[in-house]
Amino acid sequence: MTYLNRIEINPKILAGKPVIKGTRIPVSLILNLLAKGYTVPRIVEAYPNLKHDDVLAATHY
């Protein structure tokens, strides 16, 4: 499975910043949360629109 199909770059969404497809959650937010010590389950709990694979996609991006 390729994780890049979960990332979307659209100039009409957050000025073209990479986001998780179908959301307005930027990849940078997920990476910042991970850097601050959040676990994948904690991120998914805080952002119910995200799936485990969405968080992994952000790290692969």
What does this structure look like?
This protein has 61 residues and is mainly alpha-helical. It has a single domain, classed as Winged helix-like DNA-binding domain superfamily/Winged helix DNA-binding domain (Arc Repressor Mutant, subunit A, Orthogonal Bundle). The protein has three helices and two strands. The chain has a two-stranded antiparallel sheet with strand order 1-2. The radius of gyration is 11 Å and the shape is globular. The two termini are 14 Å apart. The model has no long low-confidence stretch (mean pLDDT 95).
Task: List its traits.
single chain, 61 residues, mainly alpha, globular
CATH hierarchy: architecture? Orthogonal Bundle
**Whole-number radius of gyration?**
11 Å
**Major beta sheet summary:** 2 strands, antiparallel
Can you tell me the CATH class? Mainly Alpha
- Please indicate the percent range of residues in DSSP E strands (runs of 2 or more): 5-15%
Q: What's the overall average pLDDT, rounded?
A: 95
Spatial order of the strands forming the largest sheet: 1-2
Number of domains: 1
User: Could you name the CATH homologous superfamily?
Assistant: Winged helix-like DNA-binding domain superfamily/Winged helix DNA-binding domain
Helix content: 40-55%
By helix and strand content, what is the structural category?
Answer: mainly alpha
Helix and strand sequence = EEHHH
Query: What is the fold-level CATH name, i.e. the topology?
Result: Arc Repressor Mutant, subunit A
pLDDT < 50 stretches: none
The number of distinct β-strands equals 2
Shape: globular
User: What distance separates the N and C termini?
Assistant: 14 Å
What is the tally of helical segments? 3
